[in-house]
């Protein structure tokens, strides 16, 4: 920028005057000024370098001060004698201004002493480690058993529905709960609202949750997710506890379950009263209502598998209620009546038969082929 301005001034002067001396003097003056500026800048450079050297020196002094402080801290924590610690400090103080003392051989001794606080005694003796490994290997089977027991107890504590009893024991508890509710129709509702806190009641509630959450609901969701059923058809199957699937003459029409055009040769007849899924209390509203739907072969098979599993618990409760009414309630406590009815059902193999039906329904749901 300065050179550009100097050239313009020279041209301006040459236009006004024809004297070449003036022009030479002016150009010489301009050049001399430029040279002076360059020389002055060169003279200022040593000052800048001196300032940078001062900054680097001060930084080195700060680093040295930090290193001295670290050396003092390590020497104070070291377990060695006071004489050796003083020697290490003196060595660090005498070293030049450089970040290398951390890697020097003199400081390695202090580092080794300071690392004693973080090293176990077992790591220093290999023979002791081998012996300890042998002892641990002998104790591993016992320790695994203890860990398994403790883990199962933790699961029982933190997961309310987790128990170690078998599936059939869960089913037996459910049958007892249904027999009690057949005599006292407030039992199931008091279980779910938390009124009953005794151990036998909590065990029955756990088994009911186990039946719903582990046996039935996952399989129902799997059947629905792999189908093309419409929500309206699913809701109808969920609401009616009774179903009859009747074969008719095939007719090429829209299936009322998936709404796809195909040869439909089955009529699905849905009936029964709506009920509460927890208390199993039936609703008398439109108790005689029926639905007849024309579906295809695959949807008819899926309806049968889905309906059997969906309404199994309600059907089991209805059977338990019928047994309680037929056997009659004698003048005895409810507990004695339930125990007597349960023993009779167990001896006749009725409970085992109902449990086998549940397993068959679950197997049908697991083995059901995906719709093509």
From TrEMBL:
Pfam family, one: DUF4211
Annotated spans, Disordered: 36-147
Compositional bias ranges of the Acidic residues kind: 119-132
Domain DUF4211 intervals: 117-280
Compositional bias (Low complexity): 76-88
Cellular component, GO annotation: nucleus
Cited InterPro entries: CCDC82, DUF4211
Coiled-coil domain: residues covered: 1-60
Protein name: CCD82 protein
